[in-house]
Prior knowledge:
Blueprint: H1 21-31, H2 34-46, E1 51-55, E2 65-66, H3 78-85, H4 94-105, H5 110-119, H6 132-139, H7 143-153, H8 166-175, H9 184-190, H10 192-196, H11 200-207, H12 211-221, E3 239-240, E4 244-249, E5 252-257, E6 263-267, H13 269-277, H14 281-318, H15 320-324, H16 335-342, H17 346-353, E7 357-360, E8 363-366, E9 374-380, E10 387-393, H18 394-406, H19 416-425, H20 432-441, H21 447-450
Parallel strand pairs: 4-7
Antiparallel strand pairs: 1-6, 2-3, 4-5, 7-8, 9-10
Helix pairs in contact: 1-14, 1-17, 4-5, 5-7, 6-7, 8-9, 11-12, 14-16, 16-17, 19-20
Amino acid sequence: MNFEQSYTQHQKQVQKLAMTQQLQQSIQMLQMNREDLTGFLKQKALGNPLIEVKVKGPAESDFSAPIISRTASESYHQFMDERMNRLPNKPVSLFAYVVEQIHLNMRETYLRKLVLWLSEFLDKNGYLTISLEEASRQAGAEQIQMLDALTLLQQLEPAGVGARNLQECLMLQTERDEYAPNMAYVILEEDFHDFANRKWEKIAKKYAISLKEVQIVFDYVQLLSPHPGAAFARENEQFVRPDLIVREDQHELSVHSVQSGLPIVTFQKEYYQQMMALGDKEVSTFMKGKYTEYDWIQKSLAQRGETIARVGAAIVEKQKAYFFNEKRPLSPLTLKEIAAEVGLHESTVSRAVNGKYLQASFGIVELKNFFTAGLTRSTPKTSGKKVEDELVSVENVKQELKQLIDEEDKKKPLSDQKIVDLLKDKGIQISRRTVAKYRDNLHIPSSSKRKRVF
């Protein structure tokens, strides 16, 4: 049997996209927000003597505003306001604030040394992370001395600092509050678990008080802070500079790019001409390569701005109702729809909305927030013979769910299954599990925890 091996040549034409380094970086630039873009370009400038990067200052017509949030600040008890006013104005850590109080309010004694030692075991929320037994052993102090030191630590601001658990934290705050309900401290001390598990009838019977009085205590406890030290870890309110601004003119919307805050790449023309005039071949080749890089960066920046503007305009056109209706309803919208509208790939649209913000008259919204899944709402025709289906966004369903809960009888709150039935009557069919998920997203407790006795 003979085995032969032969070689032949075939010519084959194949089309494929070559992902060059410049193309990859152009895609990266589209995905970057303004801060990342500025950092990227400054890094480029370090290796290119022909590039200088500056950031365009704000114009009078440009302004920054806080990002729109679903959470709104609630009114707090008078004593909470008073205590917050005692906090220092300048940024300071919880540990530094506590130590400063110890030095100001306590004499230099052995007990003060123990208080200072204990303060090192406070976590960021103000809780003590070491037991008294372990603290006594490590510090070489008697347990009664350590207990005295803990008592002094717990008398400092903010109220609740030095607590060893949530129960003690709430008790420390209640103890110092002259406006606290009469039975609040006793219930927290003696019946904390029954109180937390809403076994209120048992508590009312034990202390011969009404359910209404227990409800008052519960409402009061909701105002207390479970994390008294968290105020010192608060970040500054987030402000962003929008990439686009929407303006309303006679019930028409127009989208404009915001130039302020964008990095500006300038070309060092004189330096380039000086280097080229040297007549050195290697220098000329180097300079031409750096000029090509500068030219590519300028084109990529222009394309980035144009893409974001086109995508933003398409989104605004699809979500007009959001800008004209105070309830901010969102229509179901996908990346695929916008991609088809502007003639781009879905991945390009995704990069264009990533970390980009739009300024409207009512605040700043992240572009990706305009994309929401849709659910089917069935509505009967006027004839009553057929049923028409329409898409409704998940956000709108959440708002209808919230409205049902807002209007419910608080003495008999709606169960998740009842909400399912009520939404079904409106043509929206979702499962009980989905209702629970949407309720959690809206930070709305279950029906048992929403129940009130008055």
